[in-house]
Here is the input.
Amino acid sequence: SYAVPAASTTAGSADTSAATVDRIPVDSFGKQMKIAAAIFSALVFLLVWSSFSNYATYFVTTKKDSVEIMKGHFSPTGKHFFAVLHGAQFDQPEKTTYSRKEIFPILFDYYLNRSDAMLIDSSLPDFSAVGDYLQRAEQFALTSEMHQTVRQRRNNFRRLALLYKIDIDMAKASEASLQSALQHLQQAKALTTDPVQLTLIENKIDAATTTLAELKAQSEENETMLPSGE
Here is the structure.
């Protein structure tokens, strides 16, 4: 009569053991998934971090008459051509890699000096090329002072271009060309605060105004001397 309860107890113990055995693999699998997810996240972070790090890295190769700059890809490794500076010398300490803060000022000075040289070394500068060099320099300006330097150079460049047109207009010495010269002179005046340049522009304004007044007076005199036609 006591065999049935004993069997029931044994069955209950067996069920509990089975449940325990069933739970262990489930808990172990969950922990393994968490560990795998953590490892995967760490690998992704390292991949992205190394890609950003390489992307912000520059490599410099000095040659006989030029400096070649390479830039890292957005990937853990690899690089591509970034710029070549013809006729330049690299005065920075030699390193394996360089940062943006080290490379951009070098490029800024290079293009700024190229624009200055074109204005100084030529009696008739290539204004399009000068403007292109200034635009390139501005792309590598890192500070407000560097941007201000480019603006000043650009104003000087525009003023010189206007003065070149003004000289041509004044040489034509017609009413239309002198009026054009006076308009350009006002534009050039707004592009400088240098007292010497302002004096030069004011003298040209006086000369153009005087010549224009003489031409108008001569034109009116010629009209009065024409026969009335009666």
